[in-house]
Amino acid sequence: MTDRWQIHRHLAETTDQRLTLVRSTPQRILLCGADADTSRRLLAARYPHAEFAEYDSRPEFLQAAAAERKTGFWQKLTGKTVPQTCQSPTDPLPQAAADMLWANLGLITAAELPPVFQNWANALKTDGLLFFTHFGQDTLAELTSRLKNHGIHCHAPTLIDMHDIGDMLAGNGFYDPVTDTAKLELHYKKADTFRQDMDTLGLSQAITFDRPEAAQACIDRIFAEEGGLTVTLETVYGHAVKALKLPQGENLVQFYPRG
Question: Parallel, antiparallel, or unpaired for β 98-104 and 28-32?
Fold first, then answer.
């Protein structure tokens, strides 16, 4: 593994293929999670008239995306820039401002998922579209199992089963949630490359250990004694639609013609 953004690009391209089924054309898209301009570039090719805004809690990720755009053809051709905001996933987004919210690994920095989903729902217009990627509960299972055998326990509260994610979406402002998973197997020859990817993917933040120094020492031993490390990422793909939100005490009444 040498390309820092390779996994982000794979996830974004896979999700972008699903947009062929989307009939509406979003005019305003919020990017929640910077990925070196990978997602914005794909979406701009599909929706050339869309306006974008980008949010991330990691300033270095925002800087990397801005740097890619500065040297890219799109910005030179259009003269447009993408407004960026450095904030946590639960800090309020503009209310009912977007037709689509796209989050390529944007959940990975969250402490818990439901408040983020509620924030995203608030930012979308009614029937606005949510597309996101995340990692599931079996991510790095081989490694965490080996560490557990050495008395080192991991904590990953946001890496959960895809069905639980679907339930959270349904309970926090969305309808018709759809989630599915896939597996990616990665082989590393150098510990430094492995750690760099874990930082870029956000997994070094999402997975913590009760004995962090012992965990890092154990990982170093694996590389030294076995010449490498193979890990599996459980990728989660999801999409949903923003539900209509009525004032408290009101209900939607629909009338259908006879026959």
Answer: parallel
136-190 pLDDT, tens digit per residue, is: 999 999 999 999 999 999 999 999 999 999 999 999 999 999 999 999 999 999 9
Task: Name the pLDDT band for 242 (thresholds 50, 70, 90).
Answer: very high
Alpha-carbon distance 128 to 177, whole Å?
A: 13
Find all residues with CB under 8 Å of 246, minimum gap 6, and list them. 252
Residue 206: which of 150, 142, 136, 119 has the closest Cα? 136
What angle do the packed helices 162-170 and 114-123 form, to 10 degrees?
50
Eight-state DSSP code of residue 82: -
Model confidence pLDDT, tens digit, residues 57-67: 999 999 999 99
In this prediction the pTM is: 0.91
| Beta-bridge partners for 184 | 233
Q: Could you tell me where the DSSP H helices lie in the chain?
A: 6-17, 38-46, 59-70, 73-78, 114-123, 141-149, 162-170, 191-201, 203-206, 212-226
- From 3.90.180.10, 3.40.630.30, 3.40.50.1000, 3.40.50.150, which CATH number describes the 6-137+158-183+234-242 domain? 3.40.50.150
Biggest CA pair distance of the chain: 75
Q: Which residues contact 160 (CB under 8 A, 6 or more apart)?
A: 113, 136, 137
CB–CB of 132/14 below 8 Å?
no
Q: Which amino acid is at 119?
A: N
> Torsions phi, psi of 113, nearest 5?
-90, -40
- Residue 79: per-residue pLDDT: 57
